[in-house]
Amino acid sequence: MINPKSGSGRGAELIELLRRELPDAEVVELEDGSDLIAQLRRVAPRARVLAVGGGDGTMTAGATVAVESGLPLLALTGGTFNHFTTDVGIEDPMRAIEAVRSGHTIAVDVGTVNGQLFVNTSSIGSYPAFVATREGLEHRLGKPLAAAVSVVRTLAREVPMTLLVDGRRHSSALVFVGNGGYQPTGFAPSWRPRLDDGLLDLRLLDVGRRWAALRIAMSLLTGRLERSPLYIEQRVASTEIVIVEGSTLLARDGEVSEDESRIRYGVMPGALRVFCPPAD
What we know:
Blueprint: H1 10-21, H2 36-43, E1 50-54, H3 56-69, E2 73-77, H4 83-88, H5 93-102, E3 105-113, E4 116-118, E5 121-125, H6 127-141, H7 143-157, E6 161-165, E7 168-172, E8 174-179, E9 200-205, H8 212-222, E10 231-236, E11 239-243, E12 248-252, E13 255-260, E14 262-275
Helix pairs in contact: 2-3, 6-7, 7-8
């Protein structure tokens, strides 16, 4: 199942690659407005391998149906951002196709949030807006200063939420949850050394204290955020976050839903088999 318009035309290149390298494969081009998960569920009963081509949102849909149906996933990079395939080590689609020919798969974890799967990250509150602001400034200011400016801007615009995180009260507008432990520490996580540690990476900024935004910005500028009492980073197998009043946005691998007030996170260790060449 390939989105031919993904990645500024990379999807169309994937279709040509598949038809040339795996001529016996059934290639389905996803039409505009189609429900990818519904279409994958429709074809899964006759599949031996479930293949998807696109970006991280496409990978999440493929992983969802692959886990449901017990099929291995052929993940073909074809989006703008390809965090999952990069971390697995198959950012080159030919490496994934070679793995199919050899029959080699690895088992990776998938995260769950309110019953839905994610392969990379999830967040609540204004974290997606913070990331967009930070990435827009990085090329001019560098990562530390861009992160500091983005925190100040985001916290100035947003009203912090009162949260209960596993029963403990915090005040925050920025909460990040990763499927597996991310590197580096701090509020610019970008890659994972492994995808099978069975843990979630929980990070949040607690802004319920005096001058919190300024203190966090100074910690980011000096590279000492992980030592700040306002920054929380934990590795957990599960967590429950309750919004004390109202609701919040919930992001999952780039897909956003609204009006969530009780959010339960978990991990399905080794639930997804992905084709990947043996490690060197």
